[in-house]
Design goal:
alpha+beta, five-stranded mixed beta sheet
């Protein structure tokens, strides 16, 4: 007879890597929400007009509504906004990305981008320049092109007949006479003028800290002075800048002589307005509305 009771041994199996909670679900939800917001921003940028983009920029510059661009703190009404905007709404009937609606003649004239206007100005410039022996002799170094900003006249440096003395902003006699003659042609139109100076990629070794930026800026200003001396009204000059070698005409050969040039653009009204608006938003100071009741005595 067995006096011992049977002993039953229970073994509990523990699985490795057990339950760790639901923190990963929260992280996944946050990631999905962030991606949805990101794609919503991309969609708004894609369908918004330039005016609406400017309104959005003004809002983020000053959400309180006193932005320098003059927009309210509700630039776009997506529905349910406490302050419904009737002026700047997203147009859901916008064309598909990559397509451009055809403007009517009336819209084109109002926007100042009528192709016929640019064609006429381009033809006038070509005719006038060809009628001048001084300019016609350098015609191989002059290119007239129609661009989205207006009609651009590009004066390209010729190694045999350079525009400037080597390594300086001093105009040679022929080029100075050319610019003086061009000013009388520009007097036939009233478009604003943008002058840009360009260099090639060759390093410029000047006095002190001078480099291609200084050289291109000085050459653009030298061209401006010659045009003003020839009769171009100073008030018509919208911008004079030097771009060094950052915008090469010949991208294959950055050291090509074609990259040493001066460009003169007769801008359309729409392009000029865009330039002013862009410059004001980027470089302008904050606009402060003063109380008309303030007097010098109360301030000081």
């Amino acid at each position: 007879m067995n006096n011992y009771d049977p002993v039953i041994r229970r073994v509990k199996k523990i699985k490795k890597g057990g339950h760790h909670g639901g923190a990963w679900k929260i992280a996944l939800a946050d990631f999905a929400l962030a991606m949805m917001a990101f794609f919503l921003v991309l969609w708004i940028i894609n369908v918004a007009s330039p005016d609406e983009l400017a309104a959005i920029e003004g809002y983020f510059n000053d959400p309180a509504g006193m932005s320098t661009a003059g927009y309210s703190n509700h630039p776009i009404d997506l529905g349910g906004s406490p302050a419904m905007s009737t002026e700047r709404k997203l147009d859901m009937a916008l064309p598909e990305p990559g397509s451009t609606p055809e403007l009517t003649d009336e819209q084109a004239r109002r926007e100042g981008i009528n192709g016929n206007e640019l064609e006429k100005m381009n033809a006038m410039l070509v005719e006038q320049f060809n009628s001048m022996d001084r300019i016609n002799s350098n015609n191989h170094s002059m290119r007239i092109e129609i661009t989205p900003e207006g009609v651009r006249i590009t004066l390209i440096d010729d190694p045999d007949k350079p525009m400037f003395e080597r390594g300086s902003a001093r105009l040679v006699a022929d080029m100075e006479n050319t610019l003086l003659s061009m000013a009388s042609v520009f007097a036939r139109v009233s478009n604003p003028v943008v002058i840009t100076g360009h260099t090639d990629a060759s390093a410029f070794v000047g006095d002190g800290y001078q480099d291609n930026w200084d050289l291109s800026s000085e050459r653009a200003n030298a061209a401006k002075r010659a045009l003003v001396e020839g009769g171009l009204a100073p008030r018509r000059i919208a911008q004079v800048i030097g771009l060094a070698d950052t915008v090469p005409y010949d991208r294959v050969d950055p050291s090509s002589a074609e990259n040493r040039r001066v460009s003169i653009t007769l801008m359309t009204d729409a392009a000029y307005k865009r330039l002013l608006e862009s410059s004001r938003r980027r470089f302008g100071g904050s606009q402060v509305e003063l109380d008309p009741s303030l007097t010098p005595e109360s301030v000081f």
